[in-house]
Write a structure and sequence with these properties.
alpha+beta; four-stranded antiparallel β-sheet; three-stranded antiparallel β-sheet; 7 helices; binds zinc ion
């Protein structure tokens, strides 16, 4: 995503002369650059950086670090021990972080590991033990939400891949919010994205705050329902994996590197279904009950017949019918 400038035609012509396969599309204040050749990715980003362009990008999937979670370790496990152990087993560990409950920030016995995948890297999903214990490896699913870049405070990209000018969330100047010395009260602050007074650009009430598409929400709900239906078998993966690298919901003190994006999750008017955050399992809902009853009848078909006969029988006879069935089965 290249920030649109009125002089864009010189730039696009120059790029096209080098990479004829490129296509460009205007998207708001940005130009989207598409390439069918992933090898050009580095060359194009280097070119844009050299030209002093403001842009952010999405590296090819294969070159991004892989995030997984390690389960079944004690809650008190030191993240450095996990890092050392995985390194000894041949993995290239970028970062280990312990996940926490979203609201209470209490530690969970789940550890997010970020790995760089090299051609000779072992398969992390085949990892059997860590810190002398048998462990379970799962994919890391971010909690659904909007990502806001720590660097430029625009949305849907990570500051890791952001080459935009830094914009302070509070005052809009070229520094990060942690370095801001503005004493202005919230009521007088001007939002750096919509320019209205009285809220920050990270506020859900901002008109520029991205809306989550309803279609996606429906799909998510469907997935959630399916997951809860199978709750007795499957651990629901996208329960509160606090936004691992994303700072606020993690245990940042022992992290080996700094967080890159902030994923804002809406505590009020949340469009997402709320997972049970106290345990790793979904609550036992109506659908689960229906499922269990169905299963019971499937496993013991005579119960249906028994029900019919009990309804038909009266008084003392009922007991006899019941005993008869017990003897038969
Ligand atoms: Zn950015
Ligand atoms: Zn500032
Ligand atoms: Zn705003």
């Amino acid at each position: 995503m290249l920030k649109y400038e009125s002089t864009y035609s010189n730039l696009t012509a120059d790029l096209l002369s080098k990479y004829p396969d490129l296509t460009f599309k205007l998207a708001g204040d940005f130009l989207k650059i598409f390439s069918s050749n992933s090898d050009h990715y580095c060359q194009i980003t280097t070119y844009l950086t050299e030209k002093g362009q403001q842009y952010y990008d999405f590296p090819p999937l294969a070159s991004r670090p892989r995030k997984i979670v390690v389960k079944a370790l004690p809650i008190s496990t030191d993240i450095d021990d996990i890092k050392d152990e995985l390194t000894d087993q041949g993995f290239t560990v970028v970062k280990v972080a312990q996940l926490t409950k979203a609201k209470t920030k209490h530690k969970l016995p789940i550890f997010m590991v970020e790995l760089t995948i090299r051609p000779d890297s072992p398969d992390i999903f085949k990892l059997k033990t860590c810190c002398h214990l048998m462990v379970k490896i799962d994919t890391f699913n971010r909690r659904p939400g909007i990502t806001q870049c720590y660097n430029c405070n625009l949305f849907n990209h990570s500051s890791k891949y952001c080459h935009m000018r830094t914009r302070c969330l509070k005052c809009g100047q070229e520094h990060r919010i942690k370095n801001c010395d503005s004493k202005e009260k919230m009521e007088k602050l001007t939002c750096i994205n919509c320019k209205e007074v009285g809220h920050l650009a990270s506020s859900f009430s901002c008109s520029k705050y991205p809306q989550i598409k309803k279609k996606t929400e429906k799909v998510q709900n469907a997935n959630e329902n399916r997951n809860s239906f199978q709750a007795n078998k499957v651990t629901v993966k996208d329960f509160s994996y606090a936004d691992a690298l994303q700072g606020t919901n993690l245990i940042p003190k022992q992290s080996t590197s700094k967080s890159d994006t902030q994923t804002t999750t809406q505590s009020q008017n949340s469009p997402h279904p709320t997972a049970n955050e106290n345990t790793n399992e979904k609550p036992f809902g109506i659908m689960d009950a229906v499922f269990e009853i169905k299963k019971l009848f499937a496993d013991y078909p005579f119960l249906l017949e028994l029900g019919k006969q009990l309804r038909a029988a009266k008084g003392k006879d009922r007991k006899d019918v019941f005993y008869e069935h017990i003897i038969k089965n």
